[in-house]
Amino acid sequence: MLGNMMTEPLLISGILEHAIQNNSKTEIVSKRVEGDIHRYSILDAAKRSKQLANALVNLGVKEGDVLGTMAVNGYRHFELYFGISGIGAVLHTLNPRLFPEQIDFIVNHAEDKYLFIDLPFIPIIEAVAKNLKNVKGFIVLCDKENLPKDSKLENLMCYEELIKDESEEFDWPTFDENTASSLCYTSGTTGNPKGVLYSHRSTILHAWYSSAGNAMNLTSKSVVLPVVPMFHVNAWGVPYAASMLGCKLVFPGPFTDGESIYNLINDEGVNNLLGVPTVWLGLLNYLDEKDITLKNVNSVLVGGSAAPKSMIKDFQEKHNVFLLHGWGMTEMSPLGTLNQDTAEMDLMELDDRYELQTSQGRAIYGCQIKIVNDEGGTLPNDGKTFGRLMVKGPAIIERYYKSSESALENGWFDTGDVSTISPDGYMRIVDRSKDVIKSGGEWISSIDLENTALGCPGVLEACVVGVAHEKWDERPLLFVVKNSDECTKESVLEYLSDKVAKWWLPDDVIFIDELPHGATGKLLKTGLREDYKNHLITKGD
Ligand code: AMP
Fold it and tell me: How far does residue 329's CA lie from ligand 1's centre (Å)?
């Protein structure tokens, strides 16, 4: 027997309508690519999203058409989030840090009809424009006077001119909540990027459960600064969640260095921050340098890569902030687990608590997790056994865009991560399955080694890869970027010696000027692994 309740579809336009009625005065503040600050209310944002929706209809955009954006975090991008998805078209966010050949592959694969571009990214699009097969026009997110006169792009339009004469009224269409709303390609290190096509339903459910009481610490009093980019996994869904709750949003534009972030926090009263560890490293270094502390910040969410213990400790002891460690991936919208502050943690010795906080936390409602062996058999949640981490939930991918095959294994999605799960549900990422080091039949976690090495004085960044070894199959090599001459191979190995098992100690420590990072800021290990594959063999170790 079915229930008797309404089947009102979950649509992104509904968030905006809710905000108009309930939080219309809430501010949205943006540091613009032009360098100045823009400030308006969510009511203004909604009106302009509706002007955009009218403009899109006039351009002939239909339900299901895919429109690309290459833009930083800012108010115009926010309007695109709602205006494009609201009419039933698909918002395709493009990561400007991808290689040119990946960008034209993605734009062609997605069949983008129009591209919306922030001023600094015009050269990136100009460089690939001749290869773009379906793009009918390029719309620059700027005022008339800033529209470049000498661009090589054909059919170049100005966003402000496009929307300025349009009506601020628009009746959002109603359609199936499973309709596609946005598209984001994974920045895999091998092969072509793959598209993850979110639906209105998955987007709303994700925003809902990730902003529920005990999740991302968002409330109507939050002043949220998402440093996590709107061009990757919808900025972790924050533009939607914040608009549901009526949080003030502060967008940093392209300015994500420690000083700029600190100034925005201070000027706008930011209390909730979200971003990847490298951003927080930049902020912490800046605060150290200037000998200043954070005042009103009460939540910093870190994800995308593992949060090192030294960072968790610094936030707590220097700035009185509990670092909220989360894990997820593009294919999961992205949030899967969060390591929330709990009453149990209050009773723990600080060092034990920091150790627990380095785990990626417990599954949030909406995401089920389990670990399995190579044959798919479920492994115990004993906190020790490593396994392939599998996930299931209503905001998790079923198949990649345009793929004829399901991406699932017996109804679960294989995250490509290897993890443990403790008896009380704490999940700890051990490694990416391709990065884990298989030494003499045992597994060594490159992430654990990296994080431990980061605590060593003089180590600024660390990266561990497994390379071939005649006796043990693979052994770890540690690459270090240092900021002090006192940091030597001996000092690093000495530091590690009482913190990791003896057989985990790297076979060599190599100092380099810079580590390779991919388009989403993650360490790119493929090149190092290739360049150093014979490092231990030729040395005859
Ligand atoms: P992406 O799809 O680009 O967001 O990358 C997702 C991947 O980033 C995950 O599968 C993990 O390998 C990694 N990742 C995300 N968050 C964390 C975290 N807190 N700790 C360790 N790895 C993480």
Answer: 6
